[in-house]
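User: I'm putting together a small comparison set for a docking exercise, and I want a reference complex before I start. The sequence is below, and the ligand is DGJ. Could you produce the 3D structure with the ligand included, as structure tokens?
Assistant: Of course. I'll restate your input first, then give the structure tokens for the complex.
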Amino acid sequence: MPIHTLDNNYWVLETDHTAYALGVNTAGALVHAYWGERLPVPTDYPAAPDAIFHASFTGAGHMWPEEYVGLTGLKYVEPALSVSFADGVRDLVLQVVGGAVAGDTLVVTLRDAHYPLRVELHYRAHAAHDLIERWAVVHNDGAPITLERVFSAQWQVPIGRSYRLSYLSGRWIDEFQLHRQPLSPGVFVRESRRITTSHHASPWFALDDHAGETHGEVWFGALAWSGNWKLAAEVTDFGRTRVSLGLNDWDFAWRLGAGERFTTPACLGGYTQDGFGAASRRLHAFVRDNVLPHGRSPHKVLYNSWEATTFSVDVESQSKLAELAAEMGVELFVMDDGWFQGRNSDDAGLGDWWPDPKKFPDGLTPLIARVNALGMDFGLWLEPEMVNPNSDLYRAHPDWVIHFPTRARTESRNQLILNLARADVQNYLITTIDKLLSDHNITFIKWDMNRNVSEPGWPAAGDRQREIWVRYVEGLYRVWGTLRERHPNVVWQSCSGGGGRADLGILRLADQVWVSDNTDALSRLNIQHGYSQMLPADTMEAWVTDINAGRISLDFRFHVAMQGVLGVGGNLLHWSPAERAKAARFVAQYKEIRPIVQNGELYRLIEPSDSSPYVVTQYVNIARSEAVIFAFRRIGGGADAMLDGYHAIDPSQPAALKLQGLDPDARYKITGQGAARSGLAWMRAGLTVALGHQESKILRVRRVDDSGS
Ligand code: DGJ
């Protein structure tokens, strides 16, 4: 039983290694008591904290670590919930009704002291994954109220310590940059106001005070939502640190009528004593086991035609690429943008999702048949949420886009956003895409989204237009979810001009993510490093392209992409026979290591940093019988820069690489490293990998029996 109830007012959620405790303090508030290592017995956990009186300026409610803050009295911290009642009252007095445990879930119910408003706080213990999943349900049993903020969770960490916040930020072609920064009193906000998750920040965090990759306490979390979100990391002047995470309250208002309820997205939180690596491995395992629609099934090696042919697609151009891709061992051929009605550049066609008759006079079937005959599956690019004003769809339904009637409709990439909050728009997309999938043998869809919102109006919704931020995403989930149900074997990729929509919400629908339009292998090392903090390698589509091919070897480019779901996106017509033969060898090698990369555990042996030219990752299979090491040497400064081009071995060798995750008692052999040694030896004494400038290597690690074979 992972959840214990003590005295009917204190609860301990236990996972295999951690515990999360909350209870009602002497003042009747629901407060946080403990989040850390699991202790021997339920009575070991600290009492629900009370407040210490400070001064007439600050009330007790400001001081204690409330689980879900409603603003009332002398409380000035970040609230979790803000409402406006029908009579204009904007003060929320949440009182604990009680808690109920059902299986792995605790629900604590709070009720307003005066109004018939109930809040259910849900806590689900994922024991094997050492994670707590939280969400809130607000029930209104009275006159309509307006929700002005409704977060999923507030995560409290132990008082009196100075924390560092790790977060991901970036921009188009520079997503998932990992930052670690000390928090000081005040509120530090990361958010999206773009109607989608965004390239600029990701709904993920980690807090620590002295952790590293392999050691130290880390508290971390991620939100399962693909629209506007907000993370507020707050340090009070009294030394309390909390992270609030949920839907963004910016420009948000939701009318909750009598008898209605509002359910927030779920937010995951976890604790580990084993550093950032363990934190990300917990999220990875959870995503594989509990989020991804196809679970741990392997992903195919794909070829994508975008960088080769851009909009100039037709049967002939695609068939030529497909033939070369098939020779290389590619398993899935994806035709990108440019295939549909009127689409010769980015200024027309979005919305008209049928084959362009000039490019495909007999439809898509001849090309698909050709690709299938070559032994590959066929995949297609779509951008369902968008419309070009120059399209039949827009000419027929100009009112279907997000807009304010008195304002110009700002175009970006010549396109506008269909209002997926509208049921008619959702139904149109479901019908159109369903037909496309029903009429063709398509097993993969790359779902793109190439702009963010402007003029967020929804005229038909009258005074409820601010609900668009949530209803749009719910509409998106409905469209995508319905298509998934109808076509369960299709694999979907979430793309938004690269990694603009990567989160635990979309991964309930999408099997993988196109991580970035930046396919430069050196940039990818950083981008993939940041991405891997939150999401696993089997969701991380990575292509080998021609970007900077003149200065980054094919080997290096393949090795970088082989750390995720391998794809090829270069113009194969320009690759020499020798390059294609080499690529075929890499594809074959990837297929051998695919189960380890796509389903194994990731250990970062050397993280990308400015102080070292090395980046090394290690993937270990679940049985700990096999591992694969990817070692890269980038160009650093000083001697590195001087030696660039010579591919010389720098005489200053890197520190020994200490492997992780092996069975200490088993014996392992490693490519080029001589006789077998114990897992403990490889993890403590390590091995040395000599690399020239901008060189990379893959080393296979295999468990051997006592005879050494
Ligand atoms: C943006 C995507 O990220 C690219 O890979 C490509 O699909 C283009 N859109 C097509 O317009």
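The chain has a mean pLDDT of 96. The two ends are 44 Å apart (CA to CA).
User: Thanks, that's exactly what I needed.
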